Amino acid sequence: MTFKYENKKLRQGFAYVAGCDEVGRGSLAGPVVAAAVVISSSKYKVVSSMGVKDSKLLTPKKREELSSAIKKCTVAWSIGEVSSAEVDELNIHQASLLAMRRSVENLAGQLPAAENLFLYIDGKFIIPPFAKATDGKFKFHLEQEAVVGGDNKVLSVAAASIVAKVYRDELMREYDEQYPLYNFAQHKGYATFHHRQMVRQYGLSDIHRVSFCRQLVN
């Protein structure tokens, strides 16, 4: 994967180019997790040569290797989470956008000139405008572009998809220790046959999305 998208924005005068992607959108349990990544421009060729691509196309072992390597090549990287309860309250579309917003807010806090940041996002939708936030985290307009299939087109977005996936998988393994009946370490909360059967048998845990599981328990 090339870094032409990033180079385009650097030539336009942006100090940083970030990629952002989310994982866990279709899961029955656990949070939606987003990652935002700014790859160092001096490391673009290195990251491009690693075989970075959409995290869904990689083995778990390869994702873990790449996530560790990617982090070493960044100016900054960050994570944003939206809980299962928030998913139920907001709906999954809004929850996904919020997870990405939180990851970018966390990223911006690490950058000395965050107002000079450009953001690429995977999918059809940009994050709602970053007007002055009530919590004071964002006080500038963020230029951004949504790219359909961005996790297979934009190097930084693909890198973010890997970092987010590895982070969330580890989180679900930790949840597996808290809720051993559901085998979260195996299916990571997704709607496998086994997971659906466990929900029907044992009901919902504290991290299940009620709105996603209603038909299974009624």
Order of helices and strands: HEEHHEHHEEHHHH
CATH topology: Nucleotidyltransferase, domain 5
Q: How many runs of DSSP E, i.e. beta strands?
A: 5
Strand content: 15-25%
Biggest sheet statistics:
5 strands, mixed
Instruction: List the total number of helices.
Output: 9
- Overall SS class: alpha/beta
Ends distance: 46 Å
Q: Largest sheet, order of strands side by side? A: 3-2-1-4-5
Q: By CATH's scheme, which homologous superfamily applies? A: Ribonuclease H-like superfamily/Ribonuclease H
| CATH class group | Alpha Beta
How many domains, in number, for the residues?
A: 1
Poorly predicted regions are none
Taken from the alpha-carbon principal axes, the silhouette is: globular
Mean of residue pLDDT values: 92
Radius of gyration: 18 Å
What is the CATH architecture assignment?
Answer: 2-Layer Sandwich
In percent, how helical is the residue content?
40-55%
